[in-house]
Amino acid sequence: MAGMIPDHQGKAMESSCIGKIRNEARIAGALYWLVIAGGLFAGIVEGFLTVQGDPAATAQAIAAHEALWRWGIGVHLVYLAFPAIIMDVLLYRIFKAVHPAVALLALASALTSGAVAGAALLHLYVPLAAGEAGAPLVALAEGEREALAYLAIRLFETGSGFALLFFSGFCAATGALILRSHLLPRAIGVMMLLAGVCYFVSSLTTVVTPALADMLLPWILLPCFVGEASLATWLLVKGVDVTKMPG
């Protein structure tokens, strides 16, 4: 019949589509690892240069390693602006055929989390601005500037917690999509669901019951790292099982 696609052309188109999905999955996995690595680097820099409970020592550490502090901010900003957004869109393209609404929820949660985290990064520039020549803060006493800079760092940590609260929705939705589709091993889906729960509990307790949050950290974030690292590695090495793609 006229208008029908020959069998060999149909198979070629199907093969091309399968190859594209696999490539997008592997690219998403590689980008996910960039996000993980960038987050670890930025977190280590902040933790290394922040002396808990001591604004003066923190200010001295940042002043002594200003370039490292700036790199921490820069890496954080770059991975949020590029790898994270591209990864989120690629995962949405892969999972939207499984359940469009849940895939959209995952995308929206991830993008919202990135926006909140990006806004929180402004607080990390306050310690640098406080020491710049001619800055408005030079009118304050040195101890006041140090206290303000330390408070800004603590506000960044709070903002990051807010961002992870939204990111918990991405993890939980992605885990549900994996379990529903079987595109990846079910174990990874379970781990991503658990990661979502852990991020949610950690973020909420930080605001509601800080004492409990201190007791839970850092162990409550271990399942999050395992789940995300497993997903990123599987996507990078194996891609997705296209034979289980809906439709």
Describe this structure in a few short sentences.
The chain has 247 residues and is an all-alpha fold. The chain is built from ten helices and no strands. Mean pLDDT is 88; it is low at 8-14.
Helix amount: over 70%
Strand fraction: under 5%
Class derived from helix and strand content: mainly alpha
Average pLDDT: 88
Rg calc: 22 Å
How does this model look, in words?
The protein is built from ten helices and no strands. The chain starts with 6 loop residues before the first helix and ends in a 10-residue tail after the last helix. The protein is elongated, with a radius of gyration of 22 Å. The longest helix is centred in the N-terminal third of the chain and has 43 residues, at 7-49. By secondary structure, the chain is mainly α.
